[in-house]
Each structure stands twice: as structure tokens, then as C-alpha cells.
Amino acid sequence: xxxxxxxxxxxxxxxxxxxxxxxxxxxxxxxxxxxxxxxxxxxxxxxxxxxxxxxxxxxxxxxxxxxxxxxxxxxxxxxxxxxxxxxxxxxxxxxxxxxxxxxxxxxxxxxxxxxxxxxxxxxxxxxxxx
Length: 130
Fold this sequence. Notes:
Elements: E1 18-24, H1 26-29, H2 36-41, E2 42-49, H3 61-71, E3 80-84, H4 89-104, E4 107-109, E5 114-118, E6 121-125
Parallel strand pairs: 1-2, 2-3, 3-4
Antiparallel strand pairs: 5-6
GO cellular component, one term: cytosol
InterPro entries: MAP1
Protein name: MAP1B protein
């Protein structure tokens, strides 16, 4: 009974890939719930990356790196668009540090240049056409 393999659990159990058009990366892109296995299994044309809390390490650099590692194991080079909901230091550094690898893997990061105004509040937005 004491001979268990590994104490590390993955967020998504191994299995065949699932293809989707749009995926919101859960839990503000925190690495507790999203790992390389997630991106190996959950394959999408668009990933929405939330998180704007540096103290909580959101979005997580580990999650962004997991996207690169997971996508590198896909059997096709379909284009993937990464859509951050906030401008963050983590996202900017990751983008600059891994830009060449993003290009090799056909990953595009979509910067938001639009603003939506609702009542007395405004916020950045992206238009996504599927």
C-alpha cells in the first residue's frame, strides 16, 4: 500500500485531446489548476488568460510556459491566439522572453486596443470572431 508512484497530481488526467474553439484558462491562470497536461489535452484556437494580481502570481508564468510546452507536443501546428484580459508585467516579460518560441509554435498574443464603456465604467476589450 505504501508504494504510490508520485504525489504530484495533474489538473487534467491523461487521455485523448479535446478540441475547442475558445477556452478560458481557469482560476485566473493560476498554476495550481493548469499545467502542461492541460494544454496537451485541451486544445483550442483561442485561450483567454485572466489575472492582474502580481501578489497572487496571476497570471502565472508557469501556466504561460506550460502552454508553450504543451503546444509543442501537438501533432499539428494550428494557430493559437492567446488573449490576456489585463496588461501585466508577467505577461509582458513572458511575451518578450519567449517571442521566438511563440512564433515557432504558431502562437499569437492578441493585445487589446479597444475599450468598452458601460454606464460609468470602461475597460479594455477584444473582439473575437469564431
